[in-house]
Structures are given as structure tokens and as C-alpha cells.
């Protein structure tokens, strides 16, 4: 059995701070994102569900790159995260209140959009903070990133424990956690404030100069693969809870946390995997698990949907987290925040936008007279994931065997 990587490059107290940061962010995200589908349905907003999830894609087109450019050029990433976390807490509370009081659909969507704009950059900024502190991201990022998954699980279980699976209390709880994140930034390891750059163009101020990273073939293929991977992935959280309920499961938010079990295991093992396999084959493994996951869900059976949820975590980790480590290794540190932000734009923006709207239309096409043909729905997503796997296998080259860093 592979030994787990040892965290050694910074002080133990700094690891505790970084672990705490990821844990809290994961909890806040899980408390909002996972129950959102059932919360909207209970309060009469089921008709806006695809759009409520798609607003995250709209925000990702602007917000991550904009704040990534700020963190690279103007302000310490820690300070950027502090104010973003505070804004996310306020906007999440407002959106939850709007749903609770059943305001107009447009008002609810507008507030969810505001929340998405504030929260979209937080993950890439937090990742930038962690990567900047690590000397060996291949070995050490996985275990630290696993804490976010444990936080996500804790947030989901807390929601179900208080019976808030379809209640706006979930969002209000998440807002409180974001306030704690904002306060925690005062104790995070300090990062130097970047020197302001003079005579910036509009494109540079918005962070769109990061698109030049796509001129490199392998960068382009990795970025596009993660974006394409996100398209079928986007259907997982809005529709898996509905399938669970159709199969007779209560507390679907708690059942959904099973996916985080394999996510944690995969993250803890990621460092050992990277010592034995090229990043290419790790990503291929994650994509293949994605194909199998949706195939199992297509059986429309209790064991099939639970097995699909369990495989979700490993599939996500082997593709998305490996891609983040690829960026840290292959991109100049001066571009680190913008590169992570570009990844957020492509998967959180383009991938999620197409995924949420496309899966919403696909769900309607697979539904009639109040029933859903779940085998047809999940089989379509499995075929989509298979197409992404074929694309990556055909297009990615990677570094040659003579390179000092094998990618």
C-alpha cells in the first residue's frame, strides 16, 4: 500500500491554518450548493432551478479573472479573500431570505447571481494562498485539499441533522460560516502584496490576458478537458437528490455526502499516485470513473445511484485537483492566481453554464407527466463523459520522458 505524503515544508501551525481555511470554505459551499435544488422546489421556485445553478456560470465569466488579476497585481490574496468572504456571507443571507419570503423569481435570481459573483473567485484565491505556501504541491496539496471535502461533508451532514434539507436555514448557516472565513484571514500566513503595475490595459485589469496561457497546446487541452468534464458533472448535484427521493431515500443531502468519502481517499492518495503515474493517466482514470459513475446511475436502482455517488468523489479529484496541480507546476508563479482563475472561468463559467442549462433541457426531455426516465437521463450523461475521455486521449501529448518533470 502507498504511504501517504508527509507534510513538512512549512510549520505545523501554518498547516493547521491552511487546513482550517479549506475545511470552512468546503462547509460553506456544501451548505448552500447541495440543498439548493430541494430548497427551491419546496418554496415554489422549481421552474428557475436550471437558471439558479447557471448564474454561477455567468459570474465565472468575469469574477474569478477580475479578482485573480487583483491578487496577482494589486493586493495580497489574503486581503482579497477576506472581503470576498464577507460579501459572500451577506449575499447568501439575502438570497436565502428572498427564497424564504417567496419574492418574485427575478428578485431571487438576482440575489443568487449577486452571491455567485462574490463566491465564484473564493476557491481559486484560496488555492493560490495554499499553493504559495507549499514547496512540493504534488505531495502536499492533496491532503490539505481533502480538508475542504471533509468540510463539505460536515456542512451537508449538519444541514440534514437539523432537518434543513429543504429549508433556507441551510443558506443562513452557510452565511455564518463565511463570516468565520473572513475573520480567519487575519490569522492566515501573510503573503506579500504584489507591486502595482502601471499602464495596464483594460484586458489586463480584467485578467483576460490569462487567455494567452491557452496558446500552449498542453495547457489548452488540460483547460478544455476540465471545462468539458464539468458539463455532465453539472447535472450531478441538481438532479441526484431528486433521483434519491424518487427511489425512496430520505435526507438526500446526507446521502450525497457519500461522494466525499472517496474524494477524501483519492486526495490523500494523490501524492503517491503522482509518484507512480504520469498526470495524463491520472486524469484518464478520473474521466473513466466518470463514465462508469453515470452508467451505474442509469440502472435506476438504489444500489446503482449510491454507487454512482460514491464514485463521484474519486472522479472529481483525479480530474479537477490533478489539473490544479498541473497549473501550479507548469505556469509561472507570477501568473498563478490568474491561471487558477482561468480554470474557474472555463469550468465554473463555460462548463457550468452549458452543463446546468443543457442538463436542465435534457431533464425536461427525459420527463413526462410527472415522471422522469432516469436510465435515459443518466445514460446521456455517461455518453457525454465518454466523449470527453476520447477527446483528452487524442489531444493531450504531455512532456517527454527526457524531461525532469514528467507530466
Structure description:
The chain is an all-alpha fold. It has a single domain, classed as Growth Hormone, Chain: A (Up-down Bundle). The chain is built from 18 helices and two strands. The chain has helices at residues 12-33, 36-42, 49-60, 63-73, 77-100, 105-119, 122-133, 137-161, 169-184, 202-206, 217-233, 236-246, 252-256, 258-276, 279-297, 302-330, 336-365, 374-395; strands at residues 367-368, 371-372. A two-stranded antiparallel sheet has the order 1-2. It starts with 11 loop residues before the first helix and ends in a 12-residue tail after the last helix.
Question: Brief description of this entry?
Answer:
This protein is mainly alpha-helical. It is about 75% helix and about 0% strand.
Low-confidence stretches: 1-7, 400-407
Q: Count of helical segments?
A: 18
Quickly name the level 1 CATH class.
Mainly Alpha
Rounded radius of gyration (Å): 20 Å
Mean pLDDT: 80
**CATH homologous superfamily identity:** MFS general substrate transporter like domains
How many angstroms separate the termini? 23 Å
- Overall structural class, as computed from helix and strand content, comes to mainly alpha
Q: Please identify, by name, the CATH architecture.
A: Up-down Bundle
Largest sheet: 2 strands, antiparallel
Looking across the biggest beta sheet, what order are the strands in? Answer: 1-2
Number of strand segments: 2
Q: How much strand content do the residues show?
A: under 5%
Question: How many domains comprise the coordinates?
Answer: 1
Order of helices and strands: HHHHHHHHHHHHHHHHHEEH
